[in-house]
Task: inverse folding
């Protein structure tokens, strides 16, 4: 009888030692996932981290640092989170960090420059990239970051992403689909040419390091903007050349940039590139992301001379 009373008390306090899946084990049973073998310990993209059980925003990549421990580490939570602390004597005396729904990890006083170190289990979190904040319903958190977005289509997204992702000031790139009328399209659907979507690349950049005009200068150089609905051997509207703008300022800059390109004499015919308002962007399947880095023997696009 005493044994079952003990089990009941452990369940009621949210901490048992029975392991089911990793998320339940960590968030409901106060477990700890393996170091260096979890989703976010080495995640460097800009974005936010939310409670995997409730979606509440807890941490920002702006406060994430490499602690060398093999778990995601942060110096502080986002303002006004419901995160709270309690004493944990299960393994010495530590300070547990949790929400009303989830055990997250522990907090220590050995963070960088005298700050705290919130040592958090990846299994208690869900990462929302900066590029996906708006489409995921977290658009209000874009203001945490002093970043901007650009969205270009220039044929196969493998090559465009590869040539633009390492530019100084580019924070992240995502290959995906935009400009069409099908929600959450697959590569197979887009490849059919019947969805209206173009293979495109969403670029997150720091405007203090690289301007939108600079990105456009590279955009003209990474593809042939005079080819209508094709790029090299790839044909179809999904391979069209397009600039998708997020603001009227971007629209005006794009128009002037296209005019300048046409006047430059790089080609003896004008660009067929369309300039369209940005609509929903759908990230492509994971195997398309950084495809050329994963498959270095693949050749796709080349950067023309200035």
Result:
């Amino acid at each position: 009888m005493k044994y079952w009373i003990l089990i009941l008390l452990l369940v009621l306090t949210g901490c048992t030692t029975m392991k089911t899946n990793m998320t339940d084990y960590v968030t409901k049973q106060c477990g700890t996932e393996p170091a260096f073998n979890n989703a976010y310990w080495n995640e460097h993209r800009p974005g936010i981290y939310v409670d995997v059980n409730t979606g509440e925003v807890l941490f920002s990549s702006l406060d994430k640092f490499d602690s060398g421990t093999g778990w995601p580490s942060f110096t502080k939570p986002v303002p006004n989170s419901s995160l709270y602390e309690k004493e944990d004597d299960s393994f010495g005396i530590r300070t547990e960090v949790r929400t009303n729904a989830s055990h997250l990890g522990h907090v220590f006083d050995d963070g960088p420059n005298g700050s705290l170190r919130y040592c958090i289990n990846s299994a208690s979190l869900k990462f929302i990239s900066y590029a996906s904040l708006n489409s995921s319903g977290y658009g209000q958190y874009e203001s945490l970051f002093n970043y901007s977005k650009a969205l270009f289509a220039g044929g196969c997204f493998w090559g465009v992403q590869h040539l633009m992702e390492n530019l100084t000031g580019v924070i992240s790139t995502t290959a995906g689909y935009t400009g069409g009328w099908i929600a959450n399209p697959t590569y197979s659907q887009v490849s059919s040419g019947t969805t209206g979507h173009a293979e495109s690349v969403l670029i997150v950049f720091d405007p203090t390091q690289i301007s939108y005009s600079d990105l456009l200068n590279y955009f003209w150089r990474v593809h042939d903007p005079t080819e209508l609905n094709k790029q090299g051997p790839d044909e179809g509207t999904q391979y069209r050349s397009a600039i998708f703008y997020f603001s009227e300022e971007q629209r005006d800059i794009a128009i002037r940039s296209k005019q300048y390109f046409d006047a430059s004499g790089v080609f003896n015919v004008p660009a067929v590139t369309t300039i369209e308002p940005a609509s929903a962007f759908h990230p492509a399947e994971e195997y398309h992301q950084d495809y050329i880095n994963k498959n270095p023997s693949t050749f796709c696009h080349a950067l023309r001379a200035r």
Q: What stands out?
A: Residues 162 and 180 are 23 Å apart (CA to CA).
